[in-house]
């Protein structure tokens, strides 16, 4: 999958024809929509893809092998009637899922919004406690949510709380938070900001960070592996993989504008705007 302004392209690698599917937001006169988040394979709709846009809207597609994508639904995932117009939004929407049926959204709002996907209805809001926009959002799949803010901090929430579910605030980055990962041990968190700094945090105390380090440049693309202790950075002339402790694992000798890891395996996907190509790397460089 490759994000390109107002649409994404999708290809089924099992289809030998190489057919490309284009999933677009409907055109609205005077508006410029941009894809700001993707959430594939949510449990309630396993063969699916959720696409979030900068106006706070969400479109749910069913993507089955060897068939054309089908639009299942579309709704306003974050903003209420009377909020600022979509053109005034800057950060768009971030998404994560909890359990089999719950979707959490955040963005240019003072709250995180919970959605029950089975009932197709809101399930309440969680106050963020600040005017800062949510720029990254992740869950542990059960009840904890980590929200990265454009002010550089990461806030931890418990969705079981009836009111303000904030548990703690992590150490501050110097730039907006770009990526977050709640580690599988449920004891640590890794966050990366848009300036390339990395924080490894112990969830039992949050501050100070257990480890801080920075990439040597401002990254165009960042990814954290959800199970393996790996972080990838892509730039105009570089594509590198590091351990979460800051030890470089490999230099793939290739520029990349966007990167992402396979959910389980040690496989890295890297896309480039130079040639609109996506390359897959396994066993680091092979």
From TrEMBL:
InterPro entries assigned: Raptor (IPR004083), WD40/YVTN_repeat-like_dom_sf (IPR015943), WD40_repeat_dom_sf (IPR036322)
Instruction: Extract the Gene3D superfamilies matched here.
Output: YVTN repeat-like/Quinoprotein amine dehydrogenase (2.130.10.10)
Q: Which GO molecular function terms does the record list? A: protein-macromolecule adaptor activity
Example GO BP:
regulation of autophagy
One GO term of the cellular component aspect?
A: cytoplasm
Tell me which SUPFAM superfamilies the record gives.
WD40 repeat-like
- Superkingdom of the source species: Eukaryota
Instruction: Please give the name of this protein.
Output: AAEL006865-PA
Q: Which organism is it from?
A: Aedes aegypti (Yellowfever mosquito)
